[in-house]
Amino acid sequence: MSYKKKQLLGFGLILLFLVVLLTGIVIMLNSIKSNLTEIVEDRYYKVSNISEIRQLFSSSDREILFAVNEANKSERTDSLDIIHDNHSRIENEIATLSSVANTANGKKLLKELETNYGSYSITEADIIQKIESGKGPANLQALMSDQRDKRTKVIETMNSFKKYQESLMYDALKSSKQTYNQIIQFIIIAVLISIVVIAITVIWMIRSTSRNLQSITKVIKNIDYNDLSDIPRIQFRSNDEIGDIAYSFNEMAGSLEAYNEKEKEFTAKISEQNWIQTRLADIATMYQRIVDLEVLGQRFITRLAPMVEASLGVIYLKRGEGENAKFVKLASFAEEGKDAGRTNFTLGEGLVGQCALEKRSQIINNVPNDYNLIKTGLGETLPKSIFIAPVIFEDEVVAMVELASLTPFTEFQESFLRRVLETLGITINSVRGRMEIERLLKESQAQTEELQVQSEELQSQSEEMQAQSEELQTQSEELRMINEQLEERNRDTEQKSKELQRVKINLEAQAEELKQSSKYKSEFLANMSHELRTPLNSILILSEMLSDQGDSSLTSEQQEFARVIHSSGQDLLSLINDILDLSKVEVGKLDVVFDEMNVSELPELLKRNFDHVAHKKRISFKVTKDKNVPDIFFTDQQRFQQILKNLLSNAFKFTEKGTVEVTIKRAEEELVAQWINTQGASSWLEINVTDTGIGISPEKQKIIFEAFQQGDGATMRKYGGTGLGLSICREFAKLLGGWIVVESEEGKGSKFTLFIPSLPEGMKGAEDISIASSQVAAAEAQELAPSVEKEEIVELSSGDIPDEPEGDQLFKNKTVLIVDDDNRNIFALSNALKQEGMQVIAAENGLECLEVLQNGHSIDAILMDIMMPEMDGYETMRRIRLNSMYDNLPIIALTAKAMKGDKEKCLQAGASDYISKPLKLDQLLSVMRVWLTN
Questions:
Q1: In angstroms, rounded to a whole number, what is the distance separating the alpha carbons of residues 334 and 417?
Q2: Angle at CA of residue 812, ends 806 and 816, nearest 5°
Q3: Helix, strand, or coil here: 373?
Q4: How far apart are alpha carbons 266 and 37 in whole angstroms?
Q5: Cα–Cα dist 869/393, whole Å
Q6: Which of 318, 564, 650, 661 minimizes the number of CB atoms within 10 Å of its CB?
Q7: 71 three-class SS
Q8: CA distances from residue 186 to 27, 189, 313, 367, 640 in whole angstroms, order as listed
Q9: Which secondary-structure segment (H or E) carries 418?
Q10: What is the DSSP letter of 782?
Q11: What does pTM read for this prediction?
Q12: Quick one: CA torsion of 291, 295, 299, 300, rounded to 10 degrees?
């Protein structure tokens, strides 16, 4: 008998007994299930429903008692609502039970319950009607007594129904227990019979099959699982299923041997992939912090060639575009001699050029005899394989790579090379971008230097003008002397008088020419200030916005660039203001106001202004005031403090370590008289600013007070600055009637001494100048329109400035009209105001501004430039104010040509406020908050 028949016979008997056993169990379980279903789904459901009805009934009864006896009006209404709701639910529950009742007694009890509850409901409705009509408990006693009787009947009926259903549940449960006991007895008998039959069948099957299985087991135990390349085979003679197993085992052994071979090949491929990934990571790490293409090329070819066992290598970089495109050698590996390999080639030129043209790679294994030899210390030989491939970025060939090897390139080396070249294109483009950024930065620095050169040329022209003025004064003095001599003599001849008259006329013409020249100088300075401040305004606003963005998309390095640009713009603004201050001093138009100054507050002021500088540079800073120094001193406090700030700024700038010290004491008049006339002063003040810095050589001490001069070129390059600070200090000291002297030793430090007089009556004779000077000053006073004033600080009382959160909300959805002919200023202001939530409309001149207002736009504020083509800001503001609709419209005048008197002129023309360029964004927003609030 075959193994299959033995299996069928044995398992057939087992299955027969199992089927009989399971059939009996299923029949009994169905009986139990039927009883349990009746208990749970029918009886329990009905008991649960009748309990729910009883709870609702009790709730309604309690609410009726509450409504009758205790509730106020609002509570009574709530109780009645609950009663109505419970009534509906009870009726629904009774209807549900009636639909599922399946016994005659149950239907009878439900019918009785429905009748009793209907009678109860009628009495309940009467009670509710009486309650709603406002009857008290005394009027409801009869109804309440009737209600109690009917309630008792309803409850008794519900209890009867519940007991009936519970008795049915008990009978079903008892039947289920009997069925369960029968199942247990049947299972025990059936299992015992099945165990006996199965044991006999299994023993018979095991004895008949164990012999053949032992022979199979013996072969399987002899298998070497560590080496599946040679698996032993089973020798079998039977043709039954055991023989089939032996045959299948032999087939499986053959398959395992084949699989083992494939697994070895797969492991080799995985090793190759790991090798590629490791070297790709090395190449990617090498790319970091490279900012030059030549460095990139040399490092790349030097690192790549050994990785793929190449003995020669070269990389070419694309230069130019279109027909002028050319690939130039960037770097090589293991080359010898200057002419080894091509220095450049074009698209399509040679095999490497053709590969670049077709954007494909190529491997040459049959290398020609005239190819470059690979040379070592022992000899030279031809390469066996050449690899040529393009480097592609965005479907454009940006470089070519060529490698030569003594052994043929393997497939995984080719795969590695192609993956490396994919990332090389991205890296080349990134390095080019960084090089372009560096080039643009250098251009920006060059433009800044060019502006400095222009400023120096402006100063040179100013000095030439001053020399011409002095020459004319000399000529005027000579003419005066000649006229005095001619008056003392007898007027001999009329001819000589006419000649002298002609000379006088000529000199007056020259004086007039000097006035005109001074006028041109003034206009030139004012216009130059306007032309410099206009672009500087947009530079400062945009750079401040870029450097202050918290959730910006800029990197920290780019934000640092913006802060450097903003700082450089501020330095340029300071330089412009210093040049204009010097010009004012030269023409005698710098206002000096002598008033009381509290000297006792000076040490605290200096410490407050410069302590942080000393702390940052880690140097000592001391301020000492002698007791004999008067507390009250008469001078121009603003100019005096500016002199001290300039001297201290210089001291800190040129001091790297040590001490900066300020000494304030009373000066002896005899000491001061060495340098300056001391008449007219009630007392003198001596301020010494001493530092331990780099010092000044004796030959340079004579020129440091001249404009645009520093110690030497190296000092300017190392420490920066324009060389105007000390020049302004000395000129201001002269205006205050004082003087500055310097004592210094190179390498040990410097000591600047400022002598200032106390002048309660001011500078006597300050306006008594020579005739020529009077003419020049008059010309300057009328025509110069005193250069350009420094930025005015808008002073606001604390009550005028809204809190920041309110100010931010104040700007939301406000519309501002910007009138400016410079698109750079419009762009900068628009971006700044839009960030505050404002809507911006732009106009390039006054006519466009009037058109915008006529078109009915709702404007909350206007930012008005003054100097514009077609219609300037003054005329535009006058026309706007002619319309009574715009009497309260805030108009803020903005101009870079901040001439003296312009503020008053703007206010007279209709401006609400005035700010000079370049703007400070915080200052502009503060002014706008005031006017938008008002």
A1: 19
A2: 115
A3: coil
A4: 63
A5: 49
A6: 564
A7: coil
A8: 11, 5, 91, 93, 121
A9: helix 411-488
A10: I
A11: 0.34
A12: 70
